[in-house]
Amino acid sequence: MLDRVGHWARGLSGRLIASYILVTLAAVVLVETFVLGFQVPLLVNGTRLQDEVAAAAKSYARQLSQRYPGGVPDGTVLGEPGEPAQPGLPRSAPDGTLVVPAITGSMHGSQAVTAVVAIAADGTVVASSMPSRYPPGRAAASELPVQAVPPDLGACWPGCIKGGSVPSPYGSVVFSVWRAGPAGASKPPTGASRGVAFAYVQAPWSPGFINPVRAWSELSQLGEFGPLLWGPYALLIATVPVGVLFGLLASRRLIRRVRRLERAALAVADGDYTVSLHVSGRDEIGRLEANFNSMTGQLGSALAAERQRAAGDGRAAERARIAREVHDAITQHLFGLRMIAAGMRRAGPDNQQVRAIERITEEALRDMQALLIELRPASPGGAGLTPALREICAAYQERLGVTVDASLEDVTVPAPVEHGLLRITQEAFANAVRHGGARRLAVSVMHQDGHVTLTVRDTGTGFDPAAPHAGSGLDHIRDRVAELGGTADIDSAPGRGAALTVRVPVP
Predict the structure, then answer these.
(1) C-alpha closest to that of 498 among 427, 446, 419
(2) Residue 454 has pLDDT above 90, yes or no
(3) Tell me: the pLDDT tens digits for 302-355?
(4) Does pLDDT of 220 surpass 80?
(5) What is the domain partition of the chain in residue ranges?
(6) In whole angstroms, what is the distance from residue 138 CA to residue 382 CA?
(7) For residue 401, is pLDDT > 60?
(8) Residue 193, SS3 per DSSP
């Protein structure tokens, strides 16, 4: 059981399931990272930062009312002296407010900074922590975000307390506006033109990406965001069974196709080249199935060709063995019988029986020589069609005394066509000499219009092509021509010889 489970885990299905689980886990982690990095600033700034800004605005409103009841002196710079300006990075104070740096010099760049601005009842800036950006005497509506300045500052007393997050010319900020004045006051302070009616505090707000570890730590300190923190854990735990399920569903069909390929490959390894697979798609497995079918087809064709070649070699070896037996035994006996008959004829010239024996022996020797020529290899030495035909013609002339007129073009044909044409020529020559008694033959070969034409004529007794014949020579010729995809025409009649014309297509 353990071996089976281990084999499954190491197999393609187990690997696919593992890959689905890993990909899902990676996707969950990546999504959570982006959520923490981009969404936590919205959550944290919407709670803690907003509270700190509001607390700072309230604190500055009270301090300014108490410290400057008669108006803020000229050149007053609000904020904490000596604090470094850190654009885009608000810093919290221990009492829950923000640390506002006093920036007396110029502030280069377009980033938002933590700042406090004192606003008079008439809507002008009386003092700020950054005079270069929020200069005194300017209208607050022109210097601060529009959402932070009510249309009529005096009309909103005593409940004009605003806050929120808005874009500013120097980046997004979280802001808060608190009214100034002694506790219980029912209207804005009057008298000095420099009196403080409202305190505006802002802090930079970066809704961009932050470190997910830092975001996680900040969320952990906020109790109301517990589900947001523990949700990813539950999702990661659920990823495992979901990955297994999707892996099984996605890999089931693929595994079946691969196993079909495996069974087919084993069948081919056992020697069965007739295996054919159904091409089940256009993907890589489908192309592999198509290539497998092509491979088995080629292997089957190669095996059939090899078997055919082996069978041909076996037939050639058997023909050579028969030729040796005929030459070494029967031909020698016939030759000895002819010598005895010749001696008997010389001893008794008038003995007709001896003359008949000598004549029959001569004819038997001639037929035997024709048979030996027919049994010889179709293409001796693989020299080509034309040299092999010339050698056959020479054998008939030298061994049988048959005159052969040859008109042979030097043509090049595929090996199967060459072998077939040589066998057809041997069959036609043997039929003409052995059955037609021909003493003169004519053979021609020519190549024209993508075809090779072989013609064999003889001066024998001839025959009726339509009449049934005891031998099978003509049938052999027709079968070979059909295998080569050609045509065969036999023109003959009793008493006027025969003509065979074979036309075979060649590339």
Answers:
(1) 427
(2) yes
(3) 887 777 777 766 666 676 677 666 655 666 666 667 677 777 777 777 777 777
(4) no
(5) 11-226, 383-507
(6) 112
(7) yes
(8) coil
Give per-residue pLDDT as tens, 459-481.
888 888 877 765 567 888 888 88
For the chain, the distance separating the N- and C-terminal CA atoms, rounded to the nearest angstrom, is 62
Question: Between 385-400 and 352-375, two packed helices, what is the crossing angle to 10 degrees?
Answer: 170
Q: Considering only CA atoms, give the Rg of the chain.
A: 56
C-alpha to C-alpha distances, 251 to 228, 256, 281, 382, nearest whole angstrom: 34, 9, 15, 56
Coil, strand or helix: which one is 78?
coil
Q: Say what the pTM is.
A: 0.39
Instruction: Note every long-range contact of 355-361, with CB atoms under 8 Å and residues 24 or more positions apart, other chains counting.
Output: 361/334, 361/337
3-class SS at 404? strand
With tokens 């969950």, the residue in question is 28
SS3 27: helix
Q: Which long-range contacts (CB under 8 A, 24 or more apart) does 331-334 make?
A: 331/365, 331/368, 331/369, 331/372, 334/361, 334/364, 334/365, 334/368
**Beta strand extents in 345-486 (DSSP E only):** 403-408, 440-448, 451-458
Region 11-226: CATH code: 3.30.450.20
pLDDT band with cut points at 50, 70 and 90 for residue 192: very low
Instruction: Output the CA–CA distances (angstroms, integers) from residue 365 to 62, 318, 326, 335, 459, in the order listed.
Output: 144, 21, 11, 7, 21
In this structure, which amino acid lies at residue 327? H
* Burial class, 271, CB count within 10 angstroms (exposed 0-12 / middle 13-18 / buried 19+): exposed
Cβ neighbours for 427, distance < 8 A, ≥ 6 positions apart: 374, 473, 476, 477
CA distances (Å), origin 43, targets 49, 204, 219, 251 = 9, 15, 9, 42
CATH architecture of 383-507: 2-Layer Sandwich (3.30)
Q: CB count, 10 Å around CB of 208?
A: 10
Q: What is the pLDDT of residue 264?
A: 83
Q: Which residue has the tokens 């016939």?
A: 334
Q: What is the pLDDT of residues 83-134, one digit of tens each?
A: 877 666 788 888 888 899 998 887 766 678 899 999 888 888 999 999 988 8
Exposure string for 51-78, b = 16+ CB within 10 A, e = fewer: ebbbbbbbbbbbebbeebeebbeeebeb
Same fold, 11-226 and 383-507: no
171-179 vs 115-119, strand pairing mode? unpaired
How far is it, in rounded angstroms, from Cα 159 to Cα 186? 10
Report which of 309, 291, 296 is spatially closest to residue 269, judged by C-alpha positions.
Answer: 296
Q: Is the peptide bond before 377 cis (omega within 30 degrees of 0)?
A: no
